[in-house]
Amino acid sequence: MDTNKKARLDEIGYRILKYCAICTYSKFPSPASPWGICEKYEYRHEKHTGEARQVSICHFGVCAEDFEAADGVATRLAGFHDLADFDRPQQRLSD
């Protein structure tokens, strides 16, 4: 990464936080898809019978405790991997 770009990103506090799209348990139909499933958690749908289902997830979401960065995340983040901050608390959106 360009040193001036890195310095500016550091200056503004830019970080890549943990989120479902880079978690080892997530599965999305394509990289651009906002919706997928979590392969770790399942539930029984209230209106249907049968097998348990995988929990639907949003690309930008994250669960409270079980995030694990997927293999190859550093490569996927390229020069931005130094900006990953998976220990930083997530911020909730307000209405």
Low-confidence sequence ranges? none
**Relative strand content:** 15-25%
Coarse structural class: alpha+beta
The largest sheet, given as strand count, sense and whether it forms a barrel, is: 3 strands, antiparallel
How many E-type strands? 3
| C-alpha Rg (nearest Å) | 16 Å
What integer is the average pLDDT?
86
Q: Shape, please?
A: elongated
SS field, number of helical segments? 2
| Range of helix content | 10-25%
The topology string of helices and strands comes to HEEEH
The termini sit apart by 36 Å
Can you walk me through this structure?
The structure is a single chain. The protein is α+β, with helices and mostly antiparallel strands and 95 residues long. It has one domain (3-83). It contains two helices and three strands. It has a three-stranded antiparallel sheet, with no helix packed on it. A hairpin with a 7-residue loop joins strand 1 and strand 2 (35-43). The longest helix has 9 residues, at 3-11. The radius of gyration is 16 Å and the shape is elongated. The N and C termini lie far apart (36 Å). 7% of the residues are buried. The model has no long low-confidence stretch (mean pLDDT 86).
Secondary-structure blueprint:
Layout: H1 3-11, E1 26-27, E2 35-43, E3 53-58, H2 73-77
Antiparallel strand pairs: 1-2, 2-3
